Amino acid sequence: MSRNVKSLTELARPQVLGLIPYSPGRPMEDVERELGVDEVLKLASNENPLGPSPLALQAIREALQGLHRYPDGGCHTLRQGLSRFLGVRPEELCFGNGSNELLELVTRSFLGPGDEAVMGHPAFVVYRSVCQAVGCEIREVPLKDFTHDLSGMLQAVTARTKMVFLGNPNNPTGTCVSPTDLHDFVQELPRDVILVVDEAYREYVPRPLQPDLLRPIRDGRYLLTLRTFSKAYGLAGLRIGYGIAPVEMVEILNRVRQPFNVNTLAQRGALAALSDTAHLEETVRITEAGRRNLQSRLEELGLLCIPSVANFILVDMRRDGRAIADALLRKGVIVRSMEGYGLPTHIRVTVGTPQENTRAIKALAEVLGDGEAAVRSWNSAGERSAQ
Ligand SMILES: Cc1ncc(COP(=O)(O)O)c(C=O)c1O
Question: What is the average pLDDT across 84-94?
Fold first, then answer.
C-alpha cells in the first residue's frame, strides 16, 4: 500500500503548532564576547542577585558523591522538612522541576479540548502556553490598574471553566491583590473550579499582604498554591518548585509526573536553603531597599513605575520599550522588553544589588540621553543609601 509521506509539521498536533517557543535569551558569555564588555549585568529573569545560600552550596557539594544513584522519587526528606516548615501535612505537598513543571502537570491532569481556563492579561506567559498545549480554551481578563480584576475574572467563569490562574504577585506587573479580596474570590468561585495561585514571589511580599491559602485548602477548596526555590531562595539553575494542595489533587498530579522529576542536588540544595533564614532575610532586605531606590531614580528620569511587591519593576518608558532594551543591551545591561506581553512601551527590570542598580540606572540615563544631572543625582543618592 502506498502512503504519502507527511512532514513532521503535518504530524504535529495543531495545538502544539500554535505555541510560540519560549525565548530564553542568549548566554551571558556570548553577549559579553560580542559586546567586548567584561561583565554583562542580567536583570531580566528575576533571579536572586546574592546568589545561592552558602548552606545550599555545601549540601550540594556533599550530595555530589551520590550522583550515580537515581534521586528520591518521592522527595521524602525535603517533604518532611518542608511540611514542618510550612505546618502542612507531607501528603499535601507536590514537587516539580521548577514550579513551571507543576503548571504543566496541573493542566495536563485536568484540562483538555472543550474546557476553559480563566487568567488575567498580562500575566505569566506560561499559563497561556500550558493551556494551549492541551487544547483548552483561554479566557483572558484584562488587568485593572495593572492588578488582577477579580470581579472581572469571576464574571468570565462559565459552566465550562475548570481552572483559574492567578499570579500573586503577578508577573510582569509585580502587583498583588489583598488577602481579603483573594479570600472573597475563593469563596465566590464555583466549588468545582480549580484555582491555581502562583506565589513564585511570595517571600518578597510584606507579611500583612501574604494570603493564608492553607485555610481554604483545609476547607476543601480545590486550590493549588505554587511556590519556588528559583527566586528568593536563589536556586533557579537547580529547577525545583513545590505546590500545596488537597491530598486528592496531589495524588492526581503524581499520576502524570515522571518518577524522578526532581534531581538529587535540587532536593538537597532546597532543604538546606530552607534552613538558611539569614540568607533569605538578607535577600528580602536588599530587594526591598533596592526596589525603593530604583523606583525613585527611575521616576527622577521621568519614567512611570508600577508599584511592585516583588523583586522586579515594570516601567513605562513612554517610548518604544524594545528599542530601550536593545540600547541597554549594547551597554551590557539586560532587561526584559514587554512587547510580548502586549506592553510595547514597557520594560521589566529585576532588582539587583545596590551596585548593579546603580549601573543599570547610569546606563538607562545615558540611553535616554538624559545626561549628567540624572547620573549625578543617582550617584549621590547611591552613596547615601550605601551608608
Ligand atoms: C510568576 C511566575 N511563576 C512561575 C515561574 C517559574 O519559576 P520556576 O523557576 O519555579 O519554574 C516564574 C519564573 O519566572 C514566574 O515569574
Answer: 98
* Residues ≥6 apart with Cβ < 8 Å to 136: 107, 111, 112, 113, 114, 115, 116, 117, 162, 163
Distance 35 CA to ligand 1 centre (A): 29
Q: Is 97 in the pocket of ligand 1 (CB under 6 A)?
A: no
Residue 387: pLDDT band by 50, 70, 90 thresholds?
A: very low
Nearest CA to ligand 1 atom 7: 99
pTM of the model: 0.93
Residue type at 146?
F
Q: Where are the beta strands (DSSP E) in the chain?
A: 41-42, 93-96, 116-121, 137-142, 161-167, 194-198, 223-228, 241-244, 304-305, 312-316, 333-334, 336-337, 346-350
pLDDT tens profile 319-356: 999 999 999 999 999 999 999 999 999 999 999 999 99
Q: Which of the four pLDDT bands, split at 50, 70 and 90, describes residue 374?
A: very low
Cell of 98: 521548577
CA of 368 to the centre of ligand 1 (A): 31
- Residue 270's nearest CA partner among 303, 228, 222, 300 is 228
Which atom of ligand 1 is closest in space to residue 45's alpha carbon?
14
pLDDT at 372: 47
> Is the link from the previous residue into 113 a cis peptide, with omega within 30 of 0?
no
Question: What is the spatial distance between Cα 95 and Cα 102, in angstroms, rounded to a whole number?
Answer: 7
**Cβ of residue 198 lying under 6 Å from some atom of ligand 1:** yes
- Ligand 1 pocket test, candidate residues 129, 171, 227, 235, most atoms within 8 A of CB: 171
Which residue segments constitute the domains of the chain, with CATH numbers given? 54-275 (3.40.640.10), 278-386 (3.90.1150.10)
